[in-house]
Amino acid sequence: MDSGQEKIWLEVALNGGWSRGRQPLIPVSVREIVDEGIACVRAGASIVHFHAYDEGTGLPSDNADLYLAVIEGIRERVDAIVYPTIAFEGEDRYAFVEVLARRGVLEWAALDTGSVNLSHFADIDAGKTGTIYSNEESGMRRGLRLASDYGFHPSFACYEPGFIRLGAALARSIPHIPQPIYRLMFSHGMTFGFPPDSYALEAYRKLLAAEAPGAPIMIAGLDVELSHLMNDALAAGIHWRVGLEDAPLGCQVANIRLVEEAVEQIAGRLGTTVDVRTALKQPSGAQAGNGLPADRENERGRD
User: Fold this and answer.
1) Strand partners, 153
2) Are residues 229 and 196 in contact, defined by beta-carbon separation less than 8 angstroms?
C-alpha cells in the first residue's frame, strides 16, 4: 500500500529478553519499565511492547502480575496500546497472556507463527552454538483462539517469509480473529531472515499482498539498525518499531531518544493511539469485566 498520507504508527519495544548483560540500558524493574513507557508515549509512541523481569534475578519473568502492573501503570498515566510478549519456552507459552486477557487489559498480544534458528554472527565466529526458537502449531492456534475469544489483535513476528504464509493461513482458519499486524523482523547481527535492505522489504510486501492483502505492516527486528529501511517504509505507509529490544546489542542510545529520532523522521504523518485503534476498528480502552467483548460472551465455550 503506497500512500503519501498514510499515518505511521510508532511502536517502542522497551527491553526484550536480552537482560542487561547484552543490552545494558534496558529497563528491568516494573517502575523502570512503566516510567520509560510513559516517557516514550509522551514523546510520540502510540504502542508499547515489553518483557517483564524478575527484579531479584534480573532475568525475564512469566509472572502475570508483573505484566499487569506494567500495563496498568502505563495506562493510568497515558493513552497507549501496551502489550506483552509470550513465554520463550514451556508447555503453555500463553498462560499469562490468558490471565491478562481475562482481566480485560489486552488490546494486542505477540504471536510468533513459525520456528527459527537464532544465532549471532559473532557467536558463530567464536564457536558458540545458537538456539532454536520453537513454536508448535498447536501453540499458535491457542494464541489465535485467545485473540478470537477475547478480542485482542495478534502482532505476528515474522522472522522468515514462511511465518507470513502460515500466520495468514491460520488466521483465515479461525473465525472472529481481530486484524493481525505483520511485524517484519530484520537483523544485521543475527542469521535469521533478511538483512534490512530495500529488496527484502519489497519481497515481503509482495508476499503480504498475496497472502494478507490490506493488512498493516511494521518494520522491526533484533540486533538491527533500521535506518536504511525507514524512508522506504515511510513512502509505502509501513509502520515502524524502535527501541532497545530491536537495537544493535550494546546500544548506548536510550529508548526515549530512539523514539524522539523516529518522531523527527516521521514528522507530520505520526499516528496517534486513536489513529491506530480507528484503523484497526478497535474500540478505545480495554474490555471490562472478564475481558470478553459483550457480543462474544455466549461464544466462550465453543472451542
Assistant:
1) 108
2) yes
- N-terminal to C-terminal alpha carbon distance within the chain: 35
What does pLDDT average to over the chain? Answer: 91
Q: What is the pLDDT of residues 157-192, one digit of tens each?
A: 999 999 999 999 999 999 999 999 999 999 999 999
CA distance 256 to 100: 26
Q: How many structural domains are present in the chain? A: 1
Sheet strands (E) in the chain: 10-13, 47-50, 53-54, 59-60, 81-84, 108-112, 116-118, 131-133, 153-158, 181-186, 217-221, 239-242
pLDDT digits 0-9 by tens, 227-238: 989 999 999 999
Q: What pLDDT is recorded for position 290?
A: 32
CATH of the domain at 51: 3.20.20.70
Q: Is residue 229 part of a domain?
A: yes
| Residue 5 domain-assigned (yes or no) | no
Does any domain span residue 290? no
Whether this model's pTM surpasses 0.70: yes
247 CB-side CA count, 13 A: 23
Cα–Cα dist 219/239, whole Å: 6
Q: Which domain holds residue 35?
A: 10-282
Residue 24 lies in a domain: yes
